[in-house]
Each structure stands twice: as structure tokens, then as C-alpha cells.
Amino acid sequence: MYNDLKGKTAIVTGSSKGIGKAIAERFGKEKMNVIINYHGDPAGAMETVDHVKQSGGNAYAVGADVSKEEGVKALLEAAVQHFGTIDIMVNNSGFNGKNALPHELSLDDWKKVIDVNLTGAFLGAKEAIRYMLERDLKGSILNISSVHQQIPRPTNVQYSASKGGMKLLTETLAINYAEKGIRVNAIAPGTIATESNDDLEGSHKAAQLRKIPMNAFGTPRQVAQAAAWIVSDEASYVTGATLFVDGGMTLYPSQLE
User: Fold this and answer.
1) What transmembrane ranges does the database entry give (predicted)?
2) Do 128 and 89 form a contact (C-beta atoms < 8 A)?
3) What is the pLDDT of residues 52-68, one digit of tens each?
4) What is the DSSP track for 196-219?
């Protein structure tokens, strides 16, 4: 546990399930205030709210599309209205999109992923940093990236591009705001046992495990543990970094999916 996090306020986008939910729940254990964001899953969001409260934190759910400026602004407005401020912004919302060879991918399928994964992270960081600068607050921005910011994903070019862009987004923001005391970092999970990976069975599962030196899929909880550390004062001298939570998967960057 990190005592400095107690009472702080965080926004976690895409926190009705998966990694975002686990991060929000870990923040609850840290006795934090958490804005739970969802887009189409209010039941999952309310479950996350309940878990955060049961853990000793406080939470409020907000439905919003993070690929839109008005959606992100609604999240910040809710944080200020319910908890008084914003200390931490976790840009977690994202999805894989359609699997296809690049020449067969439509512009619409490309934009759907870029708009949420990359533009959403930019908007979340932009609005949170603006709020912090106006009030001279020292805060933290955390982007949830992927091993595919480093390892190409051949039939999912839009996803690889979004996460590759997130890497340099993180690093550029870190340079711009380090002197203001605003830290910007990323966590890049490998293959995590979430709903999106439920189809990993049989030979497909075995093939995926061969790419992971630890020979095991990660859990959302393990990603959340890393998230709590990197936004805490224990990581106060860390900015512009990507922390890979991948069981060693990026040690084999030549392995393609």
C-alpha cells in the first residue's frame, strides 16, 4: 500500500471491466476517490463502483465516449464536482478492432481504433494537464499501452499504430511537463487474462504461451499493482517511462502474432 495515495482522486477510463476495472479496484484499496468511466456497460461500471467502495475508497460512475472532447471534459467535471479535484488520470480505454491485412482494412476500421486508443489518451492527458497547470498541481498521467508498441501485430496494424503512437505521446508529454511536477508514464501489458482473450484455447493458447518466457498469462491484478506503484510517490523520479508487465514477452520482439 502507498500512503501518499490515500484521499487522492483518479479518473480511470474504460473501467467497467478488465484492466481498467482492476486498476480502479486497486485504487479503492488505496482509499482513493475514483471516477469510473464506461461506454455501453453501465452494469459493469456499477459493479466496479461497489468494489471500490467495499475496499474502502469512494467512486462514481460516468458514461462517456473518450474519443470525444465533450466526453473527456465530462469526466473531469464529475471528478471536481464529486471529489473536489483531479490528481491522477489513467487513460486505459482501448480495443483491438478488426483483424485484417492492412490493404483490406477500411478507413473507418482504422479510425475507430485510433480515435479511442490514441486520440482518447491525448484528450485525457490534455484536459487533466490543463486542469493541473491552472491550479499549480503536481499530478500523474498514466497511459495503458501494450507490448505492441514494440512488437508489431501483423493483422492489426491500427492497434499497433495506436500503441506505438502512445509510446511517443507519453514521452513527449513527459518532456513538456516534467518541470511542472506532472509525471507522465505508461504501462505496457502483455497477454492478460481478460474478456478480450477468452478465445485463447487449445493450440492458439499454447502458441501464445511459447512467446512468454514466464509461460503464463498475466492478470489484471498484476497490471493494477504496477499502476498503483507508478502513480505513487514511490515512483516520484520516474517520468517518460514505459513499464512492461508482460512476463518477458518483449524479450522476444521478433515473434509475431
Assistant:
1) none
2) yes
3) 999 999 999 999 999 99
4) GGTT--HHHHHHHHTT-TT-S-B-
- pTM beyond 0.70: the answer is yes
Grid cell for residue 155? 493483422
d(Cα 136, Cα 9) in Å, to the nearest integer?
16
Give the domain 3-245 fold: Rossmann fold (3.40.50)
Compute the distance between CA of residue 124 and CA of residue 141 in angstroms, rounded to an integer: 9
For 44-77, letters b (16+ CB in 10 Å) and e give bbebbbebbeebebbbbbbbbbbbeeebbebbbe
- Alpha-carbon distances of 163 from 73, 149, 189, 236, rounded to whole Å: 23, 5, 11, 24
Catalytic residues: 159
Amino acid at 257: E
Which of 159, 134, 160, 142 has the alpha carbon at shortest distance from 8? 142
What residues form DSSP beta bridges with 77? none
Residue 109 gets which letter from DSSP? H
Residue type, 76: L
